[in-house]
Amino acid sequence: MNTPTGWLHALLAAITLAFHLNAAMATNITNTVPFDPPLNIWTDQSLSIPQFNASNGTLRNVQLAFNMQTDGTIRIRNGCTQRKTINFAYSNSFVLRVLETNFEAATESRTGLALSPGETAEFGSQSKRRTVTFDVSETGKFIGNGTTVANVSRAGSVTATCVEGGCGCVAASIVSFDIRGEVSVIYTFDPPPPPRINWELAPNGLDLLLSWPIQEGFSYVLETSTGFDNWLPISTNAAPTIVAREQVAIGTEAERFFRISRAAVVVH
């Protein structure tokens, strides 16, 4: 049987290498919040977006992705005493108050709409589906242990002009408007430096006692191999455990290596 001392040197070399490999990888966490109920022209809505817990690491970037479908109806009425040829432009958007940013949801324009005196036309062809993704510059509002409240409201308008002029008697309005969909926040971050692993020889002289601190938000898998390939998991540890402790057999192989793989625990 090989001596425990030789095993310990191999063990330390393997652990150091494994931690250096894992520490350089950036990680993403995504949380998705739906518009529930759909956003419309009569009601605003508050979305509670889960914040990034700084204990997970150093936040690199925040992205917001809106996946939405808009549906609306526009009404044009000729209240004039003469027939009018009307051009109109429609725009509708919503405002995310946490960033004071305006997002275009739907736009449309038409020309040459001919209406007789007193005639009304409605257009319900505003159904559009789109995804908007952008980087957030003020990331500090998204760091904490709770939620960031984003107040969402609608902003929109319809403008009309008449080819013949004298368009003050033409009324253009938004009859209905809904935004259905969801907003996702994507946090990209660097995990904190890997924990220091401690070891000692077990009283029986044949096993190793390994221990390392557990950080909330991560799971740790202890793995073993006899040649840096075919890594086999031994155990998995995660919070609320504070310190992971494992007793592993040294075995009889000429060499045996150990490593710890750490991964972020993703919660939707």
Structure description:
The chain is mainly β and 268 residues long. Helices cover 7% and strands 58% of the residues. It contains 1 helix and 16 strands. Strands 1, 2, 4, 7, 8 and 10 form a 6-stranded antiparallel beta sheet that branches. Strands 3-9-5-6 form a 4-stranded antiparallel beta sheet, with no helix packed on it. Strands 11-12-15 form a 3-stranded antiparallel beta sheet, with no helix packed on it. The relative contact order is 0.26. Residues 1-24 have low confidence and may be disordered.
Task: Indicate the proportion of strand residues.
Answer: over 45%
Low-confidence runs (pLDDT<50, min 5 residues)?
1-24
Instruction: Tell me about the largest β-sheet.
Output: 6 strands, antiparallel
The total of beta strands comes to: 16
Residues in helices, as a percent range? under 10%
Q: Tell me the span between the first and last alpha carbons.
A: 49 Å
* Class from secondary-structure proportions: mainly beta
SSE string, helices as H and strands as E: HEEEEEEEEEEEEEEEE
Helix segment tally: 1
Shape: rod-shaped
Round the Cα radius of gyration to an integer and report it.
31 Å
Mean pLDDT: 77
Topology overview:
Layout: H1 4-23, E1 27-34, E2 39-40, E3 45-50, E4 58-78, E5 84-96, E6 101-115, E7 120-123, E8 128-136, E9 147-162, E10 170-190, E11 198-201, E12 207-213, E13 218-225, E14 232-238, E15 243-249, E16 257-264
Feature tags:
single chain, 6-stranded antiparallel beta sheet, 58% strand, 4-stranded antiparallel beta sheet, 1 helix, 268 residues, mainly beta, 7% helix, disordered N terminus
